[in-house]
Amino acid sequence: MLLEPRPLPPETVDGLRPPRAGFPYFAHADQYAFEPTAPAGSPVNAWWLADASFLVYGDSTFIDHAFNASPLPLQGFSLAWLGSSELNRGMILSNPSALVIVFRGTRLQVRNLFDVAEFVLINQNDLWTDTKFFPAAWPTDGKVHSGFLEAFSEISPILDRVVTNRTPGQRVWLTGHSLGGALATLAAAHLGFEQVHAATTYGAPRVGDSAFIRSIPEARLARYVHRDDWVATVPPTILGYAHPGVLHSLKSGGNRDLWNDLRTGTEELAAALVTLAREGKSRVGALPFKISGLADHAAIYYATLLWNRLLESSSRKLKSETR
Question: Which architecture does CATH list for 13-313?
Answer without folding.
Answer: 3-Layer(aba) Sandwich (3.40)
